[in-house]
Every structure is written in C-alpha cells, then in structure tokens.
Amino acid sequence: MNNQQITFPKQFLMLIIGGIALIIIAATSTVTIESGKAGVLYRTFGGGVDTEYFFDEGFHFVAPWNKVFIYEVRQQELFEKMSVLSLNGLEIKLDASIWYQPIRNELGLLHRTRGENYLERVIQPAIRSAARSVVGRYTPEQIYSSKRDAIQNEIYDEAKKILDNQHVQLNEVLVRDVTLPQTIKTAIENKLGQEQESLEYVFRLEKATKEAERQRIEAKGKSDANRILSESLNDKILKDKGIEATLQLAKSPNSKVVVIGSGKDGLPLILGNN
Fold first, then answer.
1. Could you tell me if 138 and 155 are in contact, meaning their C-beta atoms sit under 8 angstroms apart?
2. What is the spatial distance between Cα 93 and Cα 184, in angstroms, rounded to a whole number?
3. Sign of the CA dihedral 162, 166, 172, 176?
C-alpha cells in the first residue's frame, strides 16, 4: 500500500495562521473589568501611566501593546495588630480594623506614585504611626477604663491627615481590643474595685447623714409645736374646755352623778356607771 502525502493549499494554511493571529490579538486587545473594580491604563508608547483616564466596569478594547492594571475600588478592611507604648512606657497591644479604599478618579496617580502594593507602602505605616502617637498620650488606666473611644477617634484623625494626599480614602478606624500586661491589668482592676467601694461608702455615709438631718428637723418641728401649744394654754382656756367636756358628758344617756365644784381647779366632778 503506497503512502500518500496529504497537502493543503497554501491559501488555506495562510487562513489558519491568520485566524490564530486574530485570536491572539483579540485576546490581548480586550479586558473585562469586574464589578467593584477599575483599571489603570499603561501606554507603552504613549507616556506610561494615563493619570487622566481609568477603565470602569465592563468590557473594553485595548491596544495589544498597552497594559491594564486592575484595582479593587470598593471598601476594603485591614486587620492590624500593633504593639505601642503608653505615656509611662508600658507596652499596649491594639487590635484594630481599618476600612479604606482607593479614590477611583485618582487611580492613575496612585499607580504611578505608590503602586499596587499601596497598602503596605502607605496605609499600614500611617495607621501605625498614628497609633504610636495617640496611645503615647495616655496612661494604661485611661486606656483600659474610659478612653478607648477617644483613642479610636484620634487615631483616625491623625492617620487621615497623613493619607489625605496619598490618593486613598480612609473611612473608619475601629479599635476592637486593647490588651495590657496582666500585672498592670490586675492592678488597675483592684484599684477600680477599691474606688467603687469608696464611692459606695461615701454614698452610704451621705445617706445616713441626710436621714439624721431629717430626723433632727422633724424632732425640732415637734418640739416647737409642743412649746407653742403649751405657751398658748392658760388656766382660763383649760377651765372652759373642762366645762365644755362636762356639758357633753351630762347630755349622754348613761347614768352618772355630777358633783359641782368637786373636781380639780373647781371643775364639776362626774360619777357614772359607765
């Protein structure tokens, strides 16, 4: 059986080669930007990074000799654990969440000046610097008891000042946990407990003092009332009251004997069964 060599027309081979080339060109000349992302255009023969334009979501054609760098432009979260020093030099550990995102219409400038790893180059150093500065103003007692919100807000304010011209947007800094050395934490808890006991004692003492004052005022009021009443009663009034009482008793249906002038101070004396 003779071997037969299969040959293709030259035009057919050129068509196949051209189709493959078109597929390659099409693959390298289009880009799809997913939701929540944006692209920075790098013009190989046109001045490098285009800082005036960015690709938004969707399908785009790009010259095959150019490049597109894709960035996440939605809010992102950075979890940061930091060790910083307090006002008196003790080590404090902060566990924080940082919400951030690149500024969409400044992506070209961000790519040119900071690059794709802008998180490590810009945001983390800013947060750490702000945390060291802020925590260094407070004692461990202040940090542990009442200043966490103030520290959180101050870290945000200071970090934002650093990042304002870095083409990124700082949305929030959340201090999730503050860890003190165990010996310091125990000492603070003991001190707070003693202060609470002292406040309770002062409260009880004030309450007892107020109650004693109330009783003194009440007793003085009664004493003054009795004195005024005693001063207002004279012999004539007492006799008149006695006569009125005698008359009322005489009108009652019960049996009685009235002896005129036999009572104390000459008042009638009434003797009865009941």
1. no
2. 13
3. negative
Nearest to 81 by CA among 96, 70, 101: 96
Cβ pair 104, 54 in contact under 8 A: yes
Q: Which residue from 239, 238, 230, 96 is spatially nearest to 159, judged by alpha carbons? A: 96
Whole-model pTM: value is: 0.60
Is the pLDDT higher at 136 or at 27? 136
Under DSSP, the state recorded for 119 is I
Phi then psi dihedrals of residue 178, to 5 deg:
-125, 125
pLDDT, tens only, 184-209 = 756 666 666 566 666 666 777 788 78
Cα angle value 145/150/154 (rounded, 5°): 140
Task: Give the whole-angstrom CA distance, residue 105 versus residue 238.
Answer: 104
96 DSSP 8-state letter? E
Q: Cβ(69)–Cβ(116) under 8 Å?
A: yes
The residues that bridge with 265 in the sheet, in sequence order, are none
What is the DSSP-derived secondary structure letter of residue 260?
Answer: T
Structural domains of the chain ordered from first start: 19-72 (no CATH), 76-180 (3.30.479.30), 235-272 (no CATH)
**Residue carrying structure tokens 């007492």:** 238
Q: How far apart are CA 50 and CA 169, in angstroms?
A: 21
SS3 at position 259 = strand
Distance CA 197, CA 188 (A): 14
Q: Give the torsion sign (CA, 112, 37, 157, 122).
A: negative
